[in-house]
Design a protein that fits this description.
Blueprint (H helix, E strand, L loop, with lengths): L1 H16 L4 H6 L12 H4 L16 H15 L6 H10 L4 H4 L1 E3 L2 E3 L3 H15 L4 H13 L2 H6 L7 H5 L4 H13 L6 H16 L6
Antiparallel strand pairs: 1-2
Pfam family, one: HD
Protein name: HDIG domain-containing protein
GO molecular function: nucleotide binding
């Protein structure tokens, strides 16, 4: 446990201070800790491919590195920077257990829901407190809602989401997620997030 906490604290220091946390994470890819529980949850993302149409950057690890750097640019805008940065790092860990090839297409249905459970396991194994675990795992659970809401998909659950997490934080994380791939128009993505929050704010939270 001491070794796990020490490595967790190292990662956190870079997430919270570095302009590009991906530099340290890339340098750490082959450390022994990354092959052991719970950090293997991150290591295995290297082997998870994504749709080249939606993710020209390649595998989930590559995408995650781009997202954490986008998040680092915006962490001062977060209501809870520590939870926000860990959510950026863990947001797609569910893809390791949900990615499938279906009719020639790479999909990862429900990776947000699977990711919530894995984030809880990861953070508990790192000895983190319950309130922090809830904050991070909720962001992981709901990070896809911006896409669902903007595109009027049936998976949107605005009321339930609002009862569990800050819409502003989800919007910020979703923006980083969208920009964590090459060729994205930042102004357009920011406008999409603005529309997402506008729609969400018009819907009361579920009681």
């Amino acid at each position: 446990m001491d070794e796990v906490r020490a490595f967790f604290n190292q990662i956190e220091e870079h997430l919270m201070k570095d302009e590009k946390p991906s530099v340290f994470l890339e340098e750490s890819r082959n450390r022994p800790e990354m092959r052991s529980f719970p950090f293997v949850y991150l290591k295995r993302l290297e082997d998870v491919e994504q749709s080249p149409v939606h993710h020209p950057e390649g595998n989930v690890w590559n995408h995650t590195m781009l997202v954490v750097d986008q998040a680092a640019r915006r962490r001062e805008k977060s209501e809870n920077p520590r939870a926000f940065m860990w959510a950026a790092l863990l947001h797609d860990i569910g893809k390791a257990v949900t990615t499938r090839l279906r009719k020639g297409r790479i999909t990862a249905y429900d990776h947000d829901k699977a990711g919530e459970k894995l984030a809880v396991e990861f953070l508990k194994a790192c000895g983190q407190e319950e309130a922090f675990i809830r904050a991070v795992s909720a962001l992981v659970r709901w990070h896809m809602q911006a896409l669902f809401v903007i595109n009027h998909l049936p998976f949107a659950e605005i009321e339930k989401m609002k009862s569990q997490v800050s819409i502003r934080e989800i919007g910020l994380l979703a923006l980083c997620d969208r920009l964590g791939r090459p060729g994205r128009d930042e102004a357009r993505e920011e406008e999409n997030i603005r529309l997402f929050m506008e729609k969400c704010n018009s819907v009361p939270a579920k009681r």
